């Protein structure tokens, strides 16, 4: 998908619902629905192999009012899909499926993009030209609930 299609929340929902193969009438068209859908659909779309969604021209999103919400929502969706436990810390019934989202930058440097997505509940790291973002589990899961249980 291309960043030009992600200019606002409605565009984000349209693009990701289309990329995830969401059936018409299934999607709630809001940020929570995006997270739920990406977590629910990964197995149906990929047959349990995993999912990788690439956003081309992500530079265009820098400065967008919804950029932090978008990145946070994708981090949450990935965390849920990639986890062996549900948010309560119980082992999930379905298998863990790896889910990643890649933003390709054309002209903006990784550090500049990182400054546009840094938030208190995300861990954002830059190493050279690469940037990673993930949920800060000390914020999202400060107690053992929701973290993988020792086996």
Radius of gyration: 15 Å
Helicity range = 25-40%
Averaging pLDDT over every residue, what do you get?
84
Poorly predicted segments: none
Strand order in the sheet with the most strands: 1-2
State the total count of DSSP E strands.
4
- The shape, in one word, is globular
- What percent strand? 5-15%
Element pattern in H and E: HHEHEHEEH
How would you describe this structure to a colleague?
- The protein is globular and about 40 Å long.
- The strands form two sheets. The chain has a two-stranded parallel ribbon with strand order 1-2. It has a two-stranded antiparallel ribbon with strand order 3-4.
- 36% of the residues lie in helices and 15% in strands.
- The chain is an alpha+beta fold.
- The protein has five helices and four strands.
- Helix 3 links the parallel strand 1 (51-55) and strand 2.
List the helices and strands and how they pair.
Elements: H1 9-19, H2 31-46, E1 51-55, H3 67-82, E2 99-103, H4 110-117, E3 122-127, E4 130-135, H5 137-140
Parallel strand pairs: 1-2
Antiparallel strand pairs: 3-4
Short description:
The protein is α+β, with helices and mostly antiparallel strands.
List keywords for this structure.
single chain, 151 residues, alpha+beta, two-stranded antiparallel ribbon, 5 helices, 15% strand
